[in-house]
Amino acid sequence: MAIIPTDLQSTVAAFSADLQQKVTEWLQWDKNEKTRQSILDLIKDNNVARLSELLLQRQAFGTAGIRALMEPGFNGLNDLVIIQTSQGLAKYLVELQQKVVNGGDGGSKPQRSVVIGFDGRYNSLRFAKISARAFIHCGYKVYLFSRVVPTPFVPFSVRHFSASAGVMVTASHNPKMYNGYKVYLDNGAQILSPHDRNIQAHILQNQAPWGDFMWDTDSLTYESSEQWLVDPVEEVMERYMSTLVGNATQAPLVAATDLHAVYTALHGVGHECLTEAFKRLGFRHYFPVLTQKDPDPEFPTVVFPNPEEGQGVLDESIRTATESNSTLIIANDPDSDRLAASELHGTEWRVFNGNELGALLGWWIWSQFEERNKGAVPKSDVFMTSSAVSSKILETIAKREGFTWFETLTGFKWMGNYAVDLHVKGKTVLFAFEEAIGFMVGTQVFDKDGITGAATLLQLAAYLRSKGSTLLDQLNEIYRTYGFHYSINSYFICHDPAKIERIFNRVADLNGPNSYISEYISEVNGIKVVRVRDLNRGYDSSTTDKKPTLPTSTSSFMLTLYFANGSVITFRTSGTEPKIKYYSEMVADPSQ
User: Which helix (H) or strand (E) is 587 found in, with range?
Assistant: First the structure.
């Protein structure tokens, strides 16, 4: 116990063997004076419960990376955990490349590369630099952005530079005390299993920092790195904007419109990028929410900076809209991968939910494609996608218009990777969306992108205004054409995993051990269940072999009931919160 201060050795000696080991490892490896002192203070207070919480558990690397409170210990997010995570990821990437190419890179300059971006949260820049240290040490050229950037810039850059991977340091729309570490592989999409498990295994094999240099971020400069460290910000901004404007179908209408719109970055990273997009599209009448336009890790005007929460988060935007006579509000979350919108009708602001925006954007993107395609690409080779918990509006439109719709599990990791596979096969991928205000327009970025989504929505709004119409008018027109789609989504809090399991088992075994649809709930309020899909038990009543086409999981629950009247209800557990979430939708025939 030489690493333990003398006056604390007797206290630590009374801990369990596991806790003694983790305390020793932490004090041996952690060079950050603040987090190290926090652990020492807990030892002095003999706070075994808190020490156990922080040290005996570890952040598990998942398909979205890691996201946690910034606090000391292996279960928080801090310098040491970022070092361990980056070391493990770097070693795993080396292993992946060695499977493809035998031998080394054959030269003094790196042949491999990694893109690293960061948002405006506390510690994000430092965590990004620490990550760069690990990759450079393993022979990677690192494209480290010199200033904050939207999350979509990272997957965009991975493909632009043909990089081995991308890392974005962000906690998206979580409260200010959180941060995260999001990983993309060389296809520009979020990682899927088994990569997450393999990365976690390599993290555990590389827990001890490789040297004191891993903590040194001050000497890590572009000038002294001899091209191992490159700032890509200007090149990526130009290429991203050129692509965005090049894909715009209604730039002249945007330049000519008298539409007034407010934009908020919610104290995040989107202001510079989206206002640049507005300028290049010629949009003149936009008004930033000045109190929220600059990155601020305190998020002083919003407790929970998630525009999905609706009007309460948009109070500052509404004030700006009133002052500027604006009728449209466009909002990004703090890392700009999500998009929200609200429209003024009379004296009331209509906040669109993710399913409604998905309907509007999907209809618009399809109509623009149809107008320009002229039959050059067969409709069956044109794809749109949405997740299993999102509105089925794209499926309904696809059945009538003839393009191909497909469904994935929850999350853009699934939609992005599927879209990459289709793109590689020469298919045309137009759009993907998820009800949690995530939208992927085209194949510029194989992930949700709030910047491109906002530019696309602006073009739609300008087009509608030129016709004397509004977003709400068009949404109702979509429903008149394809049938009304109405969703109610919410959740129940449950802190007891055993109770959650009992609930799902009871639904599945209502009439006995499940083998057929009749064993599940057979009707609700007299409406018959015509199909059941249970991804926990690997059952789908609609397939020949009764196996679902979507991936299954024994560690989480996801049960979908399909009703005779076209309604669909999905119940699922959250991977990050103590919630049972439900997603319900009623789908009507256009004649109703």
Answer: strand 579-587
**Residue 199 forms part of a structural domain:** yes
Shared domain check, 368 and 321: yes
Same domain, 221 and 254: no
- Same domain for 355 and 455, yes or no, is yes
Same-domain status, 225 and 269: no
User: Which strands form 438-441's sheet, in the order they lie side by side?
Assistant: 404-408, 382-387, 428-434, 438-441
Domain hosting 5: range is 1-56
CA 549: distance to chain centroid? 23
Query: How far is the C-alpha of 23 from the C-alpha of 13, rounded, in Å?
Result: 11
What CATH number corresponds to the domain at position 569?
3.30.310
Among 482, 516, 535, identify where a domain stops.
Answer: 482
Q: Are 64 and 176 in contact (CB under 8 A)?
A: no
Assess whether 224 carries a catalytic annotation. Answer: no
Report CA torsion sign: 198, 145, 151, 255: negative
Whether residue 500 sits in one domain with residue 476: no
- Quick check: is 196 in a domain? yes
> How far is the C-alpha of 170 from the C-alpha of 342, rounded, in Å?
26
Helices within 263-374 (DSSP H only):
271-281, 315-324, 354-373
- Residue 250 has which token pair? 């209604």
Distances, alpha carbon 575 to alpha carbons 2, 63, 497, 557, 582, in Å: 40, 11, 12, 10, 14
Residue at 154 is within a domain: yes
- Asked if 522 and 582 sit in the same domain, the reply is yes
Question: Which amino acid is it at 214?
Answer: M
pLDDT in tens, the chain (592 residues): 568 999 999 999 999 999 999 999 999 999 999 999 999 999 999 999 999 999 999 988 877 789 999 999 999 999 999 999 999 999 999 999 887 765 444 444 446 999 999 999 999 999 999 999 999 999 999 999 999 999 999 999 999 999 999 999 999 999 999 999 999 999 999 999 899 999 999 999 999 999 999 999 998 988 765 679 999 999 999 999 999 999 999 999 999 999 999 999 999 999 999 999 999 999 999 999 999 999 999 999 998 899 988 778 999 999 999 999 999 999 999 999 999 999 999 999 999 999 999 999 999 999 999 999 988 999 999 999 999 999 999 999 999 999 999 999 999 999 999 999 999 999 999 999 999 999 999 999 999 999 999 999 999 999 999 999 999 999 999 999 999 999 999 999 998 989 999 999 888 877 665 555 567 888 889 999 999 999 999 999 999 999 999 998 887 899 999 999 889 999 999 876 788 999 999 999 888 8
Spatial separation of the C-alpha atoms in residues 448 and 336, rounded to whole Å: 9
**From the CB of residue 104, how many other CB atoms can be counted at a distance below 10 Å?**
9
Candidate list 38, 113, 157, 172, residue with the active-site label? 172
Name the domain boundary from 231, 262, 279: 231
In-domain check, residue 237: no
Number of structural domains the chain divides into: 4
530-542 b/e (C-beta count within 10 Å ≥ 16 → b): bbbbbbbbebbbe
Same domain, 104 and 220: yes
> 534 is written with which tokens?
């249970």
For residue 405, what is the domain's CATH number? 3.40.120.10
Count, in order, helices (H) and strands (E) of the chain. Answer: 18, 22
